[in-house]
Write a structure and sequence with these properties.
Layout (H helix, E strand, L loop, with lengths): L2 H8 L3 H18 L11 H27 L1
Helix pairs in contact: 1-2, 1-3, 2-3
Length: 70
């Protein structure tokens, strides 16, 4: 899967989706050495999991920032 389209599907703001996609690429480059194929899992599934986790982390961080600003 491509990071940007998947991020856009999960994040409503196009600018935020691009930021998420960049974070995903960074995370993938840092985590690739640790990737281990287990139980017939596919590389795309692993990538999608990272995309989902980065989206969740980004969403949580934005919520924390909004709470602090209030």
């Amino acid at each position: 899967p491509r990071a940007a389209p998947a991020a856009r599907a999960m994040v409503r703001d196009p600018t935020a989706a691009e930021d998420v996609a960049q974070d995903v690429v960074l995370e993938l480059s840092q985590s690739l050495a640790r990737y281990e194929r287990r139980d017939g899992s596919k590389f795309g599934s692993w990538v999608y999991t990272i995309i989902r986790r980065v989206v969740i982390d980004t969403t949580r961080a934005a919520a924390r920032r909004r709470r602090r600003e209030e």
